[in-house]
Amino acid sequence: MASFYLAADAVIERDGKYLMIQEGKDYVKGTWNIPGGGVEHGENPVEALKREVFEETGLEIDEIEGMIGVFNSRSAEDGHPVMVNVFSCSVEEGEPEPEFDEEILDARFLTREELEEKNLRNDIVLRAIKMKEDSKLLSPENFSSYKHPCLDEEP
Hints:
Blueprint: E1 5-14, E2 17-23, E3 32-33, E4 36-38, H1 45-57, E5 61-74, E6 81-91, E7 104-111, H2 112-116, H3 124-133
Parallel strand pairs: 1-6
Antiparallel strand pairs: 1-2, 1-4, 2-3, 2-7, 5-6
């Protein structure tokens, strides 16, 4: 059985600004992050990405342009290893309208300069944005139907 968490995050750029969320969970409260989160059992990373972006921002993904990369991280909550799949996406028109709660304090589009002044959740944020800006994307056909066999059932 896998000994890591699996996550799917999105870098979403519009008019030179990036869609960001401000975390509300106690262990990361106030930090800024790209939208995304954990892949649930029976879900593939693309399904999880669409669900998480909508839950956190109120915006639906229009298109997945490609995969930026897979990043190694650790859970801020318990230190467990996390494999983060980061995708380049576009979302429907409009401004973010999340349901603000204990998990999400804010959601908005920020310039890269504004991001560099914020307290970011981890270094994946700026690394993934740079890779997107450098157009280093994997084709969606390479991952859109992938589903890890261990994710079919509860552990």
